[in-house]
Each structure stands twice: as C-alpha cells, then as structure tokens.
Amino acid sequence: MSSTAISAADVKALRDRTGAGMMDCKKALEEAGGDVDKAIEILRLKAGKRIEDRGDRVAGEGTVQTYIHHNGKVGVLVEVDCETDFVARTDDFVAFAKEVASHIAASPATRWLDEPEVPDDVREAELRIFEQEAADKPAEIRDRIAAGKLTKWYSEVLLLEQVHVNSEKHDGKTIRELQNELAAKTGENVFVRRFARFVVGE
Questions:
Q1: Is the dihedral of CA 120, 123, 96, 53 positive or negative?
Q2: Which contacts (CB < 8 Å, 24+ apart) does range 107-113 have?
Q3: Contact in structure between 100 and 195 (CB atoms under 8 Å)
Q4: Per-residue pLDDT tens for 106-144?
Q5: Residue 91: closest CA among 113, 65, 56
Q6: Any idea which fold 61-112+158-199 has?
Q7: Inter-residue contact 93 to 82 (CB < 8 Å)
Q8: Is residue 80 within 8 Å of residue 99, measured between CB atoms?
Q9: Is the pTM of this model over 0.85?
Q10: Of all helices (H) and strands (E), which one includes residue 64?
C-alpha cells in the first residue's frame, strides 16, 4: 500500500489505539502496508513497552474543566475523556484537564486539536506558502524545508503538538506527551476530546 492510500482517519485510529505520535503511526502503517495489527507490532518493537494496544475500548467517561483568566476576559472550556468514572474523578485526571485549559487560555494561536482536524484547503494553502519561501533553495531540499515549516506550523496551531506553556513544571513536554503519560499511568484511553476558547470582543 502506498503512502497516499494511508488516510488521516487510519492514522488517527491507530494513534487512538496506541497513544503513539501521528508521524510514528503513519510510518508504521506504511511499513505494514495498511495492516493495523502489523503496524501495532512495528510500533511496539520500535518503542518497547511504552506502546500498549488499548483496542477499541470506549472512552465514554471524563470531565469538563474551565479556566478563567484573572481579568475575566479570557475563558476556556475543555473536555477530557477516559473509560471509567473512577479515573475521571481522580485528582491526576482533573488536574490534567485543568492544566490543558490553562494552556489553551495562554495560547491564542491554538486552532485545532490534532492534524486530522485541519481542513485540507488550509493545510494546502500553508504548504504552498512554505514551498514559495523555499523556492530559492536547491531543488533537492525544497520539499524537506517546506515539510519542516509545516511541522513547525502544526506545533503552533495544534493543541496536542504544543509544548505546555508551563514548560518548567512539565519538563518541556507536549500536551500529547502529557496525555499519553496519564493514559499509561491510568491504564485507560485518555483523550482531550474538544475545547473552546472565549475572548471578550472576539
């Protein structure tokens, strides 16, 4: 199966089952020819015990947490889901949701949760800009430069790719890494499901 046959939905489904990064999941699916079970095996071989196949267990419980800035002009709602009400009520789970909300409040560039949510036309428009910016570079490295710029852009606009604003407290980890750590600690699927950021006057 060629790389073009691996859809964003396939990649997201594998990531949901394993907690592995999007690019790692895409590469594993390409290497496995689209075979999900084989891709999971590839991920486990490369990442060791950190990768766990959580299967199709449904994350149907969770919590909604808020953050309101002290000036009352910025507010955030975030939903974080897990599998059981027991985990949803734990201090660690609630604290994670609150940390995500505070991060979003301090990150006005955040537009989407993850790569599959980015509209194709927006992604393609950004990529065209990056390709134009690399037009004066040697032909053999232009695509790589443009891809690198796209990855950097993702780290600015995608919540899960962003390093938490309180990087000292969280050891410079991304929201995805913190989410995966909590999933590993609880043994359950843990997902930031959705968020909304409100600013007075916008």
A1: positive
A2: 107/159, 107/162, 107/165, 108/197, 108/199, 109/156, 109/157, 110/157, 110/158, 110/159, 110/162, 110/195, 110/197, 111/157, 111/158, 112/157, 112/158, 112/159, 113/158, 113/159, 113/160, 113/192, 113/194, 113/195
A3: yes
A4: 999 999 999 888 888 998 899 889 888 888 888 788 888
A5: 65
A6: Tetrahydropterin Synthase; Chain A (3.30.479)
A7: yes
A8: no
A9: no
A10: strand 61-68
HSE, side-chain direction, 13 A CA sphere, residue 176: 19
Q: In the structure encoding, which two tokens stand for residue 35, read together?
A: 């075979």
Torsion of CA 99, 17, 112, 110, to 10 degrees: 30
Query: Residues 154-201: pLDDT tens digits?
Result: 999 999 999 999 989 999 999 999 999 999 898 888 989 999 999 998
Q: Which CATH number applies to 3-50: 1.20.1090.10, 1.10.8.10, 3.80.30.20, 3.30.70.1130?
A: 1.10.8.10
